[in-house]
Write a structure and sequence with these properties.
- The complex is a heterodimer of chains A (about 375) and B (about 160).
- Chain A contains nine helices and 19 strands.
- Chain A starts with a strand and ends with a helix.
- The longest helix of chain A is centred in the last third of the chain and has 18 residues.
- Chain A has about 375 residues and is an alpha/beta fold.
- Chain B is mainly beta and about 160 residues long.
- Chain B starts with a helix and ends in a 5-residue tail after the last strand.
- Chain B has a seven-stranded antiparallel beta sheet. A two-stranded antiparallel ribbon of chain B has the order 2-3.
- The longest helix of chain B is centred in the N-terminal third of the chain and has 6 residues.
- Chain B is globular.
- Chain B has one domain.
- The chains are: A alpha/beta (about 375), B mainly beta (about 160).
- Chains A and B meet through α5 of A and α1, α3 and β9 of B.
């Protein structure tokens, strides 16, 4: 059995920032990460970030991933377990991990879940053809491994991820034939849409994919116009030849580990799906278990980092070993989160967070 | 238009420009038409010519009497929504951010492109810079006909001669 003060599941933006706070407070900390590198989604985000200095605005995601690792590199109380998966997790905070074909057990005083999210997919004819990929997979192939999987691409979804990944594929030399969006409005920031448009990429609203066409792999897609009830409008079919189709229709929180240890979860559409219920201190219904980042509600990585710092600070408080600057850091990061969510794009999230809180009280 | 195609209306664009007297030297033109939580343009400006108030969601406002046309905001904007513009008689000059792989030689002629991605004329490349502080966003100085002042947004190479 390995003993630790804090076990953090997930080495993405929120896990790494939580680790920094725990390490600075002098707590022994283990990060378990299933990939061979730390940084989560940041490791493939080649674009410059929005936000303010506190969210590392104007740095590229790939550089933020390096920065967050540098922040914790010098702590000898920190253990990083890469290529390691949590396979069992129990209410007494004993965790079974699988590391390089070996099962091990960790007993932690507190657990921070920062597992992130998985991609949603769409149902359409032939959606299992090779060369139909999610935006995350495409970024991994192209941005992380420099593999160019196609000559041209159609993107489904105009949220920030759909727009940004389309731009990145143009940078990689892939012709982006079209970005389509089912609603009547581009979902992501319009500056991202304008970047694509000036490079000659058409973004079309009220369009959806009807089917993928191809024998052994994708050869073309059929797209159609839809009305305000998302019903196909007859006679609008259009066949676009392409050898790559990217589906970017949103993310779902990865709540499963919280469910495994009987933390209460509930479905909140504003937050992207099932999420563990947490209190104002990021604590789940099981005492000593904390959750942060996309796992508790889909937002930008900027918010995930602010949540990670906070979840780390509150975890230190829970273990009666507060960070030396706990008070000022907590008010600073709470304030940052408040500011990030206090605009047009944050309204949905705030509604979701309200529900997450209400549900916890009534549960 | 902006919400469904990504192309701002002409009057939106014009509202972000200054008159030609002010544009006798380079000034920052900021095409940020949406309230998003972002402020690197304001915090990177060495002379505090860009204001984002009352909070981080507000759209940036440039004070052209303070702006020195230094171009730091151009490569700081994660949305590539800022360029510098100046007008001298019948020519307009721009400093634009550029992140595609295509490379451009000083002195060459390229396509001038508008916000819909259409070719609208010829642009002459005057300079290309890529200093470390630009964090891999190149800054390209180009000259176009002054009549394209409110239409020009980027460049594209002329292939096959």
């Amino acid at each position: 059995m390995i003993y630790t003060d804090v076990l953090i599941v997930g080495g993405g933006p929120s896990g790494l920032t939580a680790a920094k706070m725990c390490c600075e407070a002098g707590l022994s900390t283990i990060i378990v990460e299933r990939s061979h590198i730390l940084g989560g989604q940041l490791t493939k985000q080649t674009h410059k970030f929005f936000g303010s200095k506190d969210q590392y605005a104007k740095m590229r995601g790939i550089d933020i991933a390096v920065k967050l690792q540098e922040d914790i590199a010098s702590f000898n109380t920190l253990t990083m377990m890469l290529e390691t998966t949590v396979v069992g997790l129990y209410e007494d905070k004993v965790v079974t991990i699988l590391q390089h074909n070996e099962y091990k057990k960790i007993k932690a005083k507190a657990i921070i879940l920062a597992t992130g999210a998985s991609e949603k997919f769409l149902a359409f004819e032939n959606n299992d053809l090779p060369q139909i990929v999610g935006a995350g997979a495409l970024q991994t192939l192209v941005n992380l491994y420099q593999v160019i999987p196609g000559k041209s691409m159609v993107m489904i979804g105009s949220g920030n991820i759909g727009l940004i990944v389309s731009y990145q594929m143009l940078q990689a030399g892939i012709e982006v034939k079209k970005v389509i969006e089912a609603t009547d409005r581009i979902g992501g920031y319009k500056v991202h849409a304008s970047k694509l448009k000036r490079l000659g990429v058409d973004i079309q609203t009220r369009k959806t994919i009807k089917r993928a066409i191809g024998k052994d792999q994708l050869e073309a897609v059929e797209i159609v116009s839809i009305d305000e009830n998302f019903k196909e409008i007859e006679g609008t079919s259009e066949i676009i030849e392409t050898d790559l189709l990217c589906v970017s229709v949103g993310l779902s929180p990865l709540h499963q580990l919280a469910s495994m240890m009987n933390c209460q979860t509930t479905y909140i559409s504003e937050l992207g799906g099932y999420v563990p219920l947490i209190d104002d201190y990021f604590q789940c219904s099981v005492p000593g278990v904390f959750a942060c980042g996309d796992m508790v509600g889909i937002e930008e990585a900027s918010s995930a980092m602010m949540e990670g710092y906070l979840a780390g600070l509150y975890t230190c408080n829970y273990l009666n070993q507060p960070h030396l600057e706990a008070e000022s850091l907590i008010s600073h990061y709470e304030n940052q989160l408040y500011e990030l969510r206090n605009g047009l794009f944050g309204r949905k999230t705030l509604r979701g967070i309200e529900k997450r809180k209400e549900n916890l009280i009534h549960a | 238009m902006l919400n469904s195609t990504g192309v701002p209306d002409k009057d939106q664009v014009v509202s972000r420009f200054f008159d030609e007297k002010i544009l006798s030297s380079y000034k920052a033109i900021i095409e940020c038409y949406e309230d998003i939580p972002c402020n690197p343009c304001a915090t990177s400006c060495p002379v505090s010519a860009i204001t984002i108030a009352p909070d981080i969601h507000a759209q940036p406002v440039v004070d052209p009497s303070v702006c020195t046309g230094c171009s730091i905001c151009v490569t700081s904007c994660p949305g590539l929504a800022i360029m510098l513009a100046t007008v001298m008689e019948d020519k307009a000059r721009f400093k634009i951010p550029y992140e595609m792989n295509e490379s451009f030689e000083k002195g060459t002629e390229v396509h001038a492109i508008d916000r819909s991605g259409e070719i609208i004329g010829v642009a002459k490349v005057l300079n290309v810079s890529n200093y470390p502080h630009q964090l891999k966003t190149r800054l390209i100085t180009v000259e176009v006909d002054a009549s394209l002042l409110h239409d020009f947004i980027t460049i594209r190479g002329i292939q096959h001669g």
